[in-house]
Amino acid sequence: MPRREPRLRRWLRFGGDVAVAVAVFHLAFRIRIHLPVPFTDRLLPSDRMELFRLFWPLVTLGQAGALYFFGLYDPPHPRSWVELARRLAPAMVVQGLALGAFFFLADRTFPRSVLVLYVGLGFLALLPWRLVTVTGRAVAPLRVAIVGSGAGAVELAERIGEHALHGVVIAGWVPAPGDPPVGRPAPPPELGRCLGSLDDLPEHVAAGEVDEVVIAADEGPWKTRLLDSLARATGNARVTVLALPGPYESLIGRMRYRWVSDLPLIEVVRDSEWRLFRPLKRAVDLVGGTLLLILAAPAILVCAALVRTTSPGPVLYRQRRVGRGLRPFVLIKLRTMRVDAESESEEVLARLDDPRLTPVGGMLRRLRMDELPQLFNVLGGSMSLVGPRPERPGFVARFLEEIPGYAERFSVAPGLTGLAQINGEYHSSAQNKLRYDLAYIANGNLWLDLSILVRTVKIVLTSRGV
To answer: Residues 269-308: pLDDT tens digits?
Structure first.
């Protein structure tokens, strides 16, 4: 896990962010009052400075909230100005849109040109401020660990050394299976120091010594095991993993590439898009979850009454599941099985026509009505509307050992529904569900989430997959 920075430094950064917001907000008014601005007819009257005195506290709250929800107070911090700019830009735009929506809904007149100036100047002011306070210097190089010591790895290391402007440095290398033993012959000096074995690499990443991993070795099952070990070691703070592609990988469409000089690298695991997507996804969870809970309240009450009158025991069933970062949480659902369903056995996967189901349990499962109370989990933050379905700890422990790549699904919050639920069958294998889960993680966006939610409604209405 990433190392926690001193609390004083975090508070200083927060104070600087607030100060930048106030200063830029004031500057935006001054520019409009004293300087002509394109696409405006006239200067702003000087008495409009009263709006600055009225709304600067609101702007500071908006600044802090936008930076928080876009992960700019959470480790790991952006390691380069490009990554920082990609996270700051949407934070400032969303902040500007939120302020504009507030003034519109509050029926307050506010100069739109000031908001536009505030967003643009705020981005330009925060970028150098954040670079200095987070990294301690204007450019923080990405520390890359190379897996492999063959010709491809050496060529990559040489290109990194020749092109310092890329902002990448070699943290060291790790031998891949099939490489010559360390020291026989001596590895090329371009690769730097040896970081140990593949088993040691996750420790270097978790300790903050390595920012990205580049695989420059031949294909093999060890690559999946490496991804699993990295996912377990870093938890929520996913590390970016890239690969030097061969001819086959280069022909695969819809891949994300990066370049070091003229060498292409495929992004196998990346987190930058999810850092930008998570705030929007969380907002959709809160708004959508609240609306769905209001709409579903009558159905939940009717189903609860059916459970109460047809079988002894509690209406709600609470069960430990494993969520994002392999952290356990308590899932809430309507009880569909007898109270003693697992009293004489260990965790057992539900199956078609399960004899442990109550008289109405099968119907509730067929219509997915037993899942509705999980909307409370969504509002609480332990789950999302869309994501991989959460599993029980015993199954997770087993699947982590048996299924390569299973640890990667815990890089995102579990969902009420997911890609596996709308495309696969209810009793599909864990391996097949993982394929869908990893496809969702690699391609997650708002439109995919909305598509999954709409298709889930169709599946519930047609009772497909049971």
So the answer is: 665 566 667 778 888 899 899 999 999 999 999 999 998 8
Taking the CA of residue 41 as centre, how many other CA atoms within 13 Å lie in the half-sphere pointing to its CB?
A: 2
Supply angle C-alpha 460, 424, 395, rounded to 5: 105
Which residue, among 212, 200, 265, has the nearest Cα to 237 in the 3D structure? 212
Domain ranges of the chain: 7-135, 142-270, 275-462
Q: At what angle do helices 272-310 and 81-105 cross, to 10 degrees?
A: 60
- Supply the pLDDT for residue 377: 94
Question: How many other β-carbons are positioned within 10 Å of the β-carbon of residue 322?
Answer: 22
β strands within 81-187, DSSP E: 142-147, 168-174
**Residue 374: pLDDT above 90?**
yes
**What are the helix and strand counts (H, E) for the chain?**
15, 10
pLDDT at residue 20 above 90? yes
Helices 272-310, 446-462: inter-axial angle, 10-degree rounding: 20
Alpha carbon distance 83, 85 (integer Å): 5
3 state DSSP class of 349? coil
Rounded to a whole number, what is the largest CA-CA distance in the chain? 80
Mean local confidence (pLDDT), 88-110: 89
Query: What would the CATH number be for the domain defined by 142-270?
Result: 3.40.50.20
What's the pTM?
0.62
